[in-house]
Amino acid sequence: MNTNEGSPKPDLSLVDPGEGVGLQDHRAPTMSEDNDREEADWRARVAGYADSMQAFDPAIFRSDDDEVDGQTAALAAGALIVASTMLIDELLEDITTMAPFGHADRAGLNRLLALGELPPQFADRYDGRFARKFLVAAVLIIGRFSAPRWEPPCSFAEALALHIVVQRAKALLVDHGCLDEQQAQDLYAGFEDAAFEDGDHEWLDQAARTTGREGAGAATSPEVVLQSWFEPFLGTRTHPFLAES
């Protein structure tokens, strides 16, 4: 027996499709919303690392000669910390990658991460010993971010490692849509002027092809060139491990 026989059917036209059944509350987020949430989480996480940057005041990060807002300054400082961690991790991975072969070469440089950003003309000289020394130089300069007072790079290797960190920090902010390339350049201009002594970052590319701070000794051997990268600048001191040839 059909007990529902004769029962009136509900008028569904009167029902709000979003009322009572939770259709709106449980709508799956769109891909765009997921991406926006992930980017917001990334920015918050990176800005949180700014506290590790003790050597520089947030006011060092400027854009077009104007002070940037606190959130952007925190992102700029935090991105340097993230880029520093990336560099150290990748140097460790490069050392592991090279271990079976003993050294890199021009072709093999493409398979490396951090070392792949160094001047390619010395690729066949980038061996395990060099990689370990460059790692130490990177750790020395990066560690000074958390010091109460900044000490500029004490060797070309330290300056080169810092240069890589800054370029990566800029790329991170651009890739995540925080800034465009010109804005990133402007944002870090004051930091670069303060972090590198006497415009060190402006002569990096030329000095990498020669030796020493002034680019002297262009005719010397690659071994001498690379060893000079780890020699302390005049009036500075560095770790004894870097002084060993």
Describe the structure.
The structure is a single chain. With 245 residues, this protein is an all-alpha fold. It has one domain. Helices cover 47% and strands 2% of the residues. The chain has helices spanning 31-48, 70-98, 128-143, 156-175, 181-195, 204-208, 222-229, 240-243; strands at residues 62-63, 66-67. The N and C termini lie far apart (99 Å). Residues 18-24 and 211-219 have low confidence and may be disordered.
In short:
The protein is mainly alpha-helical and 245 residues long. The chain contains eight helices and two strands, in the order αββααααααα.
CA-CA gap between termini = 99 Å
Query: How many domain regions?
Result: 1
User: What is the average per-residue confidence, as pLDDT, rounded to a whole number?
Assistant: 80
Say how many strands there are. 2
The rounded Rg comes to: 27 Å
Tell me the series of helices and strands, N- to C-terminal.
HEEHHHHHHH
Strand adjacency order, main sheet: 1-2
Number of helices: 8
- Proportion of β residues? under 5%
Low-confidence stretches: 18-24, 211-219
Helix content: 40-55%
- What is the approximate shape? globular
Structural class by helix and strand composition: mainly alpha
The profile of the biggest β sheet is: 2 strands, antiparallel
